[in-house]
Structure prediction request, 351 residues.
Amino acid sequence: MIVRDRFGLGWRPKLALGILSNLDRIDVVEVIADDYFRAPHRERRALRTLSAQTPVTLHGVTLGLASSVPVEVKRLDQIARLCADVGPVSWSEHLAFVRGGGIEIGHLAAPPRCAATIDGAIANLRRARAIAGIAPQVENVATLIDPPGSDRDEATWVSEIIRNSDSHLLLDLHNLHANALNFNFDPLDFISRMPAERISAVHLAGGKWIGRHEAPRLLDDHLHDVPDPVYDLLEEVAARTPQALTVIIERDGKFPPIESLLDQLDRARAAVARGRQRARVLAA
Amino acid sequence: MNESRLESFLAKIYVDENARAKFLADPRGEAVKAGLTPQQIEDVVKIDRDGLELLAESLKRKKQGGR
Prediction:
């Protein structure tokens, strides 16, 4: 069986020229959905044009699906309209909460890992599927704090949501790498506890160390190259997943030359190939 | 309802510098005032203070610099 994995980059205005000039080496582009909810008509049209040229996946950042609070219908309507307009190959969101009590956190926060947020996330994913027509892939988030109010570990919490919803997992391997280092768990054990057949996409990124010298933490800042251990995790995921994967490198700033990002995509391709080869050897 | 109260409490101490300072000075008192359950109060009293400060700083930088 031939597995058609896709490898691509997050769409950012400063990368646009580099991406458009190298579509022969980029299989898919991930676009931040929220940037287009209120975009002028011409920007929407440009996104439709991009989608006609290359597969596009939409990535949401403000729904706050992993919450005990129901996601607002007006927010789901926005992503539904964008999906209908652009025709992405998939869309995704985060297992995060982003607001509470009328306060916007301004970024993705890890919610308490407990039954209430599992039930809330499952209900929100059901709403998202009903309104958008297709279920979002959902992404594990990086966190600098072990979320208070948690009564289970991250792997248990994520896998319970995936197993009890229609959503597939967008496994962010730098988020996993950072959380594993910051909270002292084995990322390979985390991967082994995910339902492998439900992993359909992967994010790769980089970060930097912050905090006190004696207790530093790895910040997932999307401003640095993908570190070596993350490619090793990608190989492991590929060895466990026979289905096609969409692998996206996210870079939000301190942009290197496009050739550097394309080289990192090639390293991702090589890691996936090694993983697939390992699986073939084991199966033979 | 109780879980959403905890999420609201966390959102507040993550982004509101004054609320965070009050909480760090008297975690139990602030958690009680917020109407958290006894278990939630115990959970936030044991909060990872290093993580809270780093998260708050990171959120502040993101707000200043955009996404």
